[in-house]
Specification:
Blueprint (H helix, E strand, L loop, with lengths): L24 H13 L4 E6 L1 H9 L1 H8 L3 E4 L2 H10 L8 H14 L4 E5 L2 H14 L5 E5 L10 H12 L4 E5 L4 H10 L6 E4 L3 H6 L7 H5 L3 H8 L1 H35 L1
Parallel strand pairs: 1-2, 1-6, 3-4, 3-5, 5-6
Helix pairs in contact: 1-5, 2-3, 2-12, 3-8, 4-12, 11-12
Length: about 270
């Protein structure tokens, strides 16, 4: 589709725009299946409003995002704004990706790594994933220390461990921007592993964090659940997200008008 259909998530003055290039889960899984078959690495990020705020203020984060091969829409505002712009996409969050990716990896005998959280949580999550998905092997679990630098020598050590374990998929749960920074950094060294940033996904699987109930997610109120359960952590984050919405709304309208104009001329 034409560039005019894209929401300008990042102002043009700050660099190349981010594009949601995997509009549906089926599109994504089909492409990842091909990557697994060809032992070809990839980086997957899930765009949400918090990422948009960070992308607009953090040059290193923008550079890391630019290195990602797959981007999905994680958050209803991204879905709604994309639809307004004339480029409809489906909601595909990091937490919701874990089960289908684990199922695919298990069926294709692709070893998996878990990176993030703490050792006990990783062990619990690994056991549950292997029990839930036939054929799945979690080959290695890595729990970085507090204050971990995703581009440090220690990060290089972890990349070497992933290579030695011969994994094909690494689920990275460090939170943004660390997980995207680590994934893009690792891809410069190894090109046979798929890195997928999943935020709190490992904690949800292990049960150390509770995700919003399904009915809350269905009414697009997961953000309210998070705010109510952890206001100190999320109040400032969501305030910044609300502040960026007006400019995104204007950008989506401009993209829609440009697209409609292009259709009228063709």
């Amino acid at each position: 589709m034409a560039d005019t259909m894209q929401v300008e998530w990042i102002p043009a003055s700050q660099g190349e725009n981010v594009t949601v290039n995997m509009p549906t889960l089926s599109d994504l899984l089909a492409d990842i299946k091909r990557h697994f078959e060809e032992r070809e690495g990839f980086c997957l990020a899930t765009l949400n409003l918090d990422h948009v705020v960070k992308l607009r203020s953090d040059q290193a984060f923008r550079k890391a995002y630019a290195a990602h091969s797959h981007i999905t829409a994680d958050g209803n505002p991204i879905v709604w704004l994309s639809k307004l712009a004339g480029k409809p996409v489906s909601l595909v969050s990091g937490a919701d990706l874990i089960a289908p990716l684990a199922q695919l990896a298990g069926s294709m005998k692709v070893p998996v790594a878990l990176l993030g959280s703490d050792e006990e949580t990783l062990r619990t999550a690994a056991r549950k994933l292997e029990a839930q998905h036939e054929g799945l092997t979690v080959a290695i679990c890595i729990a970085p220390p507090f204050g971990f630098d995703p581009t440090s020598e220690l990060a290089e050590t972890y990349v070497s461990q992933l290579q030695e374990a011969d994994v094909g998929l690494c689920l990275v749960a460090l939170g943004a921007p660390k997980q995207e920074l680590f994934a893009s950094h690792a891809m410069r060294t190894v090109n046979r592993i798929g890195f997928v940033s999943i935020g709190a996904g490992i904690d949800f699987i292990a049960g150390t964090q509770t995700r919003a109930p399904v009915f809350v997610r269905l009414i697009a109120a997961e953000w309210l659940w998070r705010l109510a359960t952890n206001p100190k952590r999320f109040a400032g984050r969501y305030a910044a997200c609300f502040l960026v919405l007006p400019s995104l709304f204007v950008s989506a309208l401009k993209a829609r008008r440009a697209n409609n104009h292009g259709k009228a001329e063709s």
